[in-house]
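Z., the sequence and structure:
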Amino acid sequence: MENLIETIVKPLVDFPEDVKIDVEENENRIIYKLKVNSKDIGKVIGKQGRVAKAIRTVVYAHAHATMKKKVFLEISE
């Protein structure tokens, strides 16, 4: 899942080396915490959150097809 998120996000940003993903896993959910450079946060979120929503849609669809746990994606700088 981390590879999928990186594959989507790295082409969008100016500083792809700053893209980091931390994972917190509980018994019924997985939280992926995406961190990007502060200069790139606007590109990842997009106008009115459209890019972030699109990223979450792809990640959630992939998770639904492959995992039994609920998946969340948090985006921060």
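The first helix runs from residue 2 to 9. Strands lie at 20-25, 29-35, 70-76.

Let me know what you think.
H.
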